Each structure stands twice: as structure tokens, then as C-alpha cells.
Amino acid sequence: MATTAQTGSPQPDSSHPDGTHEVPPHAPAPVSAPKTPTKTPQPGQISRLGIAAVVVTVVLWASAFVGIRAVGPSFSPGSLTLGRLAIAAVVLGLVVLPQLLKNGNLPRGREWWPILAYGVMWFGGYNVALNAAEHLLDAGTAALLINVNPILVAIMAGLILKEGFPRWLIIGSLVAFGGVAVIALGSGQRSTADVTGVLLCLLAAALAAVSVIVQKPVLRKFPAAQATWFGIMVGAVCCLPFSGQLVAELQAAPLPATLGLVYLGVFPTAIAFTTWAYALSLIDAGRLAATTYLVPGTTILISWLVLGEIPTVWGLVGGAICLVGVGLTRRRSR
Asked: Which of 284 and 267 is assigned the larger pLDDT?
């Protein structure tokens, strides 16, 4: 080949008339340097870590329904909320506080307003309302009413966050909502359509939906763990009036109920709300909210394994419909 020049022997034909020399053939060419492929996610593509965050959120939030049912006789709605938030604040604070002390990345001025909003509405109001509703309604009715939330999020995300109204998101949401309705039909042996309980569930769903929309812009400025911890602290402060009740109920509660409260604070609250916030920072609010249609079906499976409650045919069919509906929300219109 023409490039087999001996080392150290200058090539006379490589010189230009002005005395300059070409780069020897064996020298590394600048264009061939470092090939370090960087993966740039395509529009709408979700990383594996994002998918894992969604799965963790769904499973842990589903387990919360089982946990609340287990500790409900020992803790009233307000004290249960305060206990969960206090435990979550300590656990998540162990992760967040060192970062804040190092970086000093605290919200300033108007940045606090949306944090205060979702802290009061979601971590405070939503949890108290849901806990109170579950004392009045059977699980199926409560699950059906709470799952109005994803539809509300999709509508508000389209109007406020300008995410639009993708055809498959709407179709999939309606299919998944139908699955939740099927689950509700077969849950429990009674249906106590108590007006107060219904209103509390609808209030909880509305508070959660608004909170998702409010939280989304905050996640552009703060990491998921920090945004979650700020909200938890705000919610805990709002629930301080229940502190006396919590102390009294803790003294009377059996050990399993206390351990259940700890579980609710660490897993469905500290961890699941953080993984939710992380997923929300990556995914459109409407599409992410649709994944919560999987919570009722997952709850049925967990209660089957933990409490020995055998799922009904309605529950299994409804869960399958929810899976199909959530799958449809992931499709893209062409």
C-alpha cells in the first residue's frame, strides 16, 4: 500500500513547493478521535430510571391503602397524616439536608408560593380528606372517586401546562377509568354511598390534581427529593394541631399499628412521593397521572398477598382493563 513508509525516512513527495509537509499517513487524524457516543433521549422517550420510578410509585401508593386499612382503627385521619409526614420529614431530611447545607439551594421569594400551595393541598389536605373518606366509604367506591384525579390532571395539564390533549391519552384514560369502575363494582359486600365520604374523596382528588400541576414547574428548579421534602415540611406544619391527638393515640396503639405508621411514613410517603416527583420531572403530567389508574388493581393484589383478601373476578377483569388503558395512553398520535 502507499502508506507503508519506513519510520524515520522522510518522504520527498510529501513536501509542497513552499517547504511545508503533509501530516504523515500514520499520524492520528483529528476526525477519528474519541468516539464517546452520548445518548440523547428522543421526544417522549422515558429512561429506564424514569420507568422504575413510576413502578415504585404505583406499588408503594397501592400498599398505602392496605396500610391505612390496617392502622385505621388506631389512628384518626389528622393524627395519621401528621405521623406519616413527621416520619417522612425525618427520613427524607437525612438525604436532603446535607445537600442543602452544601449547596444552599433554598427557594427564594416567590419560589415558595407553589411549594406552599402543594404542601398544604397535597401533603396536608389530600391525606386528611382521604383518610377521613375511608372511614365512611368502602374501598371500591373510594378508589373509583379518587381516580377522577388523572382525568382532572389531564384536563388541567392540557389547559395550563400547554401539554395539549393527545387523542390516545384521552382514549386510554377513559378505558382505564372504566377499569376502575369495574373494580369498584366488585369490591366489598356493601356500598355506603355516604354523601360526606363522596365529597371528601372528590375533594382529595381535586387537591391532588391541582397539586400535580403546581408541582411540575417547581421540578425545573429543584431536584425531586428537595421539592418533595419542602412540601412534606409544609404539610407537617399544617397538621401540627393534631399533635396532641397523635401523642395520645401512639400511647394507646398496639405495636403493629405503630410499625404500620412508620411504614406509611417511610415508603408510600418519603420514597413514593420522591419517585413520583422524579418521574414528573421527566414525563408530561397528563401521561404520568394516567399511570395511577394501576393503583387500585395493584392494591387488590397486595391485599390478597398481605391480608389474604381473595380478589373477585370483577377486580381481576378491572385490573386488566386498567393495564390496557394505561398502555393506550403511551401511544403516540400520528
From this structure: 267
